[in-house]
Give the backbone structure.
Amino acid sequence: MTQEGRRVQRRRRRRRQRIRRLCLLAAVVLVILAAVLLIWQPWGKDEPKEDPAGQTETPETPDPGTEEPEEPEQPENPIDKTAWNLLLVNPWNPLPENFTVELKDVNASHQVDARCYDDLMEMLEAAQAQGLEPVICSSYRTQNTQQVLFDYAVDQFLNQGLSQEEAEKAAARDTAVPGTSEHQVGLALDIVDVNYQMLDDAQADTPTQQWLMANSWRYGFILRYAKEKTDITGIMYEPWHYRYVGREAAKEIYESGVCLEEYLAQ
Ligand SMILES: [Zn+2]
């Protein structure tokens, strides 16, 4: 090979080496660029995309395999369902033995559990401020009072020709069997409109009832025996019977549309 030929070969080798180095450099730059993009993720991190339903994408959830699963969110102060204000008394849950309650006079003829007195007063005053005249027609009852009421209801059915057993069964639908009435707890009140004091379905249409049904929960009271829950409560629809359960529970019960039995079973 001539000297000229060797020079040409060296130049070619050097050019090939330069091209290889350039390729290597380009590859390294590409890898670095890809890594930077992966870490930075300029797509979709700053602006969460919207899904067709219009809901914003939730932030990325941690991989369950690598991180501790998060505790399900608990309300800050979960409601104690065994508290005095949530005592369940119904046809299947009689009043606890030796039940006692500290009473407070609402007026000359009515008493309630002293612990719901302030909320009751606030509710009645709020109704009156709307120009309404709620009238309490029943509140705390002793076992004896409940027995008198029940016996009277049974007599009405006996007079209609029912047997003792049938009469007691029929009476129990609207007058609780003594020992199973919420009125004996001191947390239940029958409230009617001054202009319509009948205890029937039409009571629901009075201005007082309309207001109480919409607002009693703000003061800790629920309409206890709803029309669509009679199978669960065991008591007929009573659009006048309000039960104190406390403000927190009343709000939850009102908003979820459940009855007390369902709420306590949750
Ligand atoms: Zn009642």
